[in-house]
């Protein structure tokens, strides 16, 4: 296989030094290393390393075959269906082919939805489409809209549009600096110690503060090594307005259970 890689050539349109149309060819692999020591007789083991040529790296980087995906967004998805639709959307936005259209069977297959679940389209809309839209709109660099195409009363096809978000406005760094200076000059008074029944979930980072430390310890012991602030953001999104009604031991139990579930769903970081 290594010999085949060395023999692989790319071809692209170019212009010759005389200004005429030409075909430019270049290799995929510049060099390779294959371990030959300490190999067991009859077993193909060992490391193989290879390096792409500069031209091959350029062509791969410019290719529209690959999707641009944000690591933070990928880790933030709670729904496996939303993550799959995000992958499809990221690839289509990259290719500037922002519309996906197909029948409901094709949609289910694309997201890996079992034929035994969400057989009724109303369930599919509520449990999959709406959930996917909410998560993607929040986390991705594009938004999702869909149109249901009916045959009679039944939904037969879906048209899904992935719309890139607008480029963020330029930040006024001077104004931001002034705000930070104002915050530094403010006197922060230490809060009185709270009883267990008064403890509420922090609104900001769990990295600092006495109240935050309670939840930080739980996240470190039950979150499987995931970033504790990342888990906290997911916890707030998951509970929404219900979070304000939890406090004390019930809040701690809910937080611990969520941390364990977060780790179990995603595995080790």
Question: Can you offer a commentary on this structure?
Answer:
The chain has 269 residues and is α+β, with helices and mostly antiparallel strands. The chain folds into three domains: 2-62, no CATH class; 71-164, Winged helix-like DNA-binding domain superfamily/Winged helix DNA-binding domain (Arc Repressor Mutant, subunit A); 199-266, no CATH class. It has helices spanning 2-6, 54-62, 71-76, 80-95, 104-111, 121-139, 173-185, 210-222, 228-239, 248-266; strands spanning 9-15, 21-27, 29-34, 48-52, 99-103, 142-151, 154-164. The strands form three sheets. Strands 5-7-6 form a three-stranded antiparallel beta sheet. A two-stranded antiparallel ribbon has the order 1-2. Strands 3-4 form a two-stranded antiparallel ribbon. Helix 4 packs across helix 6 (121-139) and helix 8 packs parallel to helix 10 (248-266). The model is unreliable at 186-194 (pLDDT under 50).
Count of DSSP E strands? 7
Q: State the strand order across the main sheet.
A: 5-7-6
Q: What is the name of the CATH class of the largest domain? A: Mainly Alpha
Distance from first to last alpha carbon: 32 Å
Number of domains: 3
């Amino acid at each position: 296989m290594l010999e085949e890689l060395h023999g692989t050539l790319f071809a692209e349109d170019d212009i010759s030094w005389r200004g005429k149309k030409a075909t430019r060819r270049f290799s995929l692999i510049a060099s390779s290393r294959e371990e030959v020591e300490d190999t067991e007789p009859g077993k193909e083991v060992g490391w193989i390393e290879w390096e792409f040529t500069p031209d091959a790296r350029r062509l791969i980087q410019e290719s529209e075959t690959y999707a641009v995906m944000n690591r933070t967004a990928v880790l933030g998805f709670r729904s496996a269906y939303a993550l799959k639709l995000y992958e499809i959307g990221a690839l289509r936005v990259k290719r500037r082919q922002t519309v996906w259209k197909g029948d409901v069977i094709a949609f289910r297959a694309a997201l890996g939805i079992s034929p035994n679940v969400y057989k009724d389209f109303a369930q599919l809309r509520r449990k999959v489409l709406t959930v996917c839209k909410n998560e993607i709109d929040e986390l991705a660099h594009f938004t999702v809209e869909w149109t249901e195409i009916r045959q009679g009363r039944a939904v037969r096809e879906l048209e899904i549009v992935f719309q890139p978000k607008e480029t963020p406005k330029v930040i006024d760094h001077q104004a931001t600096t002034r705000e930070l200076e104002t915050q530094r000059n403010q006197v922060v008074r230490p809060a009185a110690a709270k009883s267990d029944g008064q403890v509420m979930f922090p609104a900001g980072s769990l990295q600092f503060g006495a109240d935050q430390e309670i939840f930080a310890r739980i996240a470190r012991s039950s979150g499987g090594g995931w970033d504790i602030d990342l888990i906290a953001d997911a916890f707030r999104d998951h509970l929404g307005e219900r979070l304000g009604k939890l406090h004390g031991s019930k809040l701690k139990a809910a937080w611990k259970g969520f941390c364990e579930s977060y780790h179990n769903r995603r595995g080790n970081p």
